[in-house]
Design a protein that fits this description.
The complex is a heterodimer of chains A (238) and B (252).
Chain A lengths: L1 H39 L4 H14 L1 H6 L1 H11 L1 H9 L4 H15 L10 H12 L3 H24 L8 H22 L4 H22 L2 H24 L1
Chain B lengths: L1 H6 L6 H38 L7 H41 L2 H15 L7 H35 L2 H6 L3 H14 L6 H25 L7 H27 L4
Helix pairs in contact in B: 2-3, 3-4, 3-5, 3-9, 4-5, 4-7, 8-9
The chains are: A mainly alpha (238), B mainly alpha (252).
Chain lengths: 238, 252
């Protein structure tokens, strides 16, 4: 614990810079999107507000879910490292895994006298390797992917009509979601949660279309999630 | 919004403006911010190891540590961004891989905002909606995370164990409603959209069976295989639709 107390103030400085950069990046993209929207009149103010509402409410459940892991991490590597790593790239599970792997490779346990500043530095090194390869991947692949996806559209002599991105935008999520769902169907609790949230989704969809309710349009995912969580927990304990 | 129309200048359509100006700006911002983030994320290690001198751990152990985790993580390094890019878009993926929690937070948000705007990531409107939704989710998550590291213990103690355990199901519950959202998007009915999606869904199910039951050791690539197969089918569907459209619009 002495090591954590010793390094925490320093790490908070780095954490502040890194987290600030995450916010700066988000702000730059939002500004670009809003300028583009203003110029081309794509989304109404109401639709923008809806995006903000959905973005705000959809993360609350998963964020609370991560609290227990984050707190475990605070106990092991301190609040600054936890905030820095779980706020950047950080699926908390992965950061926890990397910290534990570092201590295992060093042959040192957290919280003991052997957990020196050098070992904590080694933990940081390992955690960085949860981040760096993704950054390199993005720098190499995303722009060429975009260019390739739009190449067909640009290269075509005929303007308008279907474009590949529309088809890909439909295909990818419809493959990804069943991939996860099959796994969920094999586990008690998750199975019931999934089935009930699907049924709730169908009912809410029908009601929303009949009533035109804006509330349901914005919050149906959260409602399904809460119903699914309740049923999943009941089934798990049954 | 009437005012906005007056501000619009030039002869470009939104789609042309999107390809000519918006997307290059997305990559400019995305690449610049990722490069800076690269150095910011490695800076604490460099400071502590080289400047403060906390370097009792030899270089050989640094490499041994990376070698120990790389085989477990390399599948994700390669496959994850490619898997989520067709859903989050370029701006969404730059933001999501800097802020993290792609599967649990950014993917559901992207799906929900696209459904709400009745569009997808392939359109300029879908890109704008996704950027706003994901950016909001990032800020809210950081606020919750900040509160967590400060007073999270008290929050956990206040919650009954069963309530706490039920949060394990929040992503499962979201996926259930996200599928419905996808079916209710577009021009067709729920059933028509479901039937259109069946070939893609089969790809995901096939990939799950493949990596879990038929071929061992490639579990990390399962999602990518499913998405890859679906994109391949989408490409053939696109070629067919494009040919039909061009035949019907010879003067376009």
């Amino acid at each position: 614990m002495e090591t954590i107390k010793q390094l925490n103030p320093t790490l908070w400085v780095f954490a502040a810079f890194l987290i600030a950069w995450v916010v700066v990046q988000a702000a730059m993209f939002v500004r670009l999107a809003l300028d583009f929207n203003k110029k081309n009149n794509l989304l109404t103010k109401q639709e923008i507000n809806d995006c903000v509402k959905i973005g705000s409410t959809s993360v609350i459940g998963p964020a609370i879910n991560a609290i227990a892991i984050c707190l475990s991490m605070v106990g092991l590597v301190g609040s600054a490292d936890t905030f820095m790593r779980c706020g950047v790239i950080g699926a908390p599970m992965q950061e926890m895994f990397l910290a534990q792997q570092a201590s295992a490779v060093a042959g040192v346990q957290f919280g003991t006298a052997e957990f020196t500043p050098s070992i904590m530095t080694f933990v940081l090194w390992m955690q960085v390797w949860g981040t760096i390869p993704f950054f390199i991947h993005l720098l190499i692949s995303i722009k060429p992917l975009d260019l390739a996806a739009n190449a067909g559209q640009k290269g075509s002599k005929k303007v308008g009509g279907p474009n590949f991105m529309q088809f890909m935008g439909m295909a990818a999520p419809m493959a990804l979601m069943p991939y996860f769902m099959v796994g969920y169907l094999r586990t008690k609790g998750q199975r019931e949660c999934l089935i009930v949230s699907l049924i709730a989704g169908i009912i809410l969809n029908v009601v929303q279309k009949k009533t035109g309710s804006k509330f349901l349009a914005n919050f149906s995912m959260i409602i399904c999630m809460i119903i699914g969580m309740i049923v999943g927990e009941i089934a798990f304990n049954a | 919004m009437a005012d906005n129309k007056e501000i619009k200048t030039g002869a470009m359509t939104p789609e042309e403006d999107y390809l000519a100006n918006f997307m290059p700006s997305v990559h400019k911002i995305g690449r610049f911010t990722i490069i800076v983030a690269f150095f910011l994320s490695i800076a604490p290690f460099i400071y502590l190891y080289f400047i403060k001198g906390y370097n009792d751990v030899p270089f050989s152990m640094l490499f041994a540590g990376v070698a120990a985790v790389a085989p477990m993580l390399i599948g994700g390094w390669i496959s994850e961004p490619l898997t989520y890019w067709p859903i989050l878009g370029s701006a969404g993926i730059y933001m999501s891989y800097l802020a993290g929690n792609v599967m649990a937070m950014r993917f559901p948000v992207a799906t929900a905002v696209q459904k709400n705007a009745n569009t997808d990531i392939s359109t300029p409107k879908g890109q704008v909606a996704t950027i706003i939704g994901i950016a909001t989710s990032i800020v809210i998550n950081l606020v919750i995370l900040f509160i967590t590291v400060l007073v999270g213990g008290a929050i956990l103690n206040a919650m009954p164990p069963k309530v706490l355990h039920s949060f394990n199901y929040c992503i499962v519950g979201m996926i259930g409603s996200m599928v419905l959202m996808r079916f209710s998007m577009g021009k067709g009915t729920l059933v028509q959209n479901f039937l259109d999606a069946v070939p893609y869904m089969c790809c995901g199910i096939f990939a799950y069976i493949l990596v879990n039951f038929l071929v061992k050791g490639i579990t990390m690539y399962g999602a990518l295989i499913g998405v890859g197969l679906a994109v391949l089918i989408a490409y053939f569907k696109y070629k067919k639709a494009r040919a039909e459209w061009e035949a019907a619009n010879p003067d376009a």
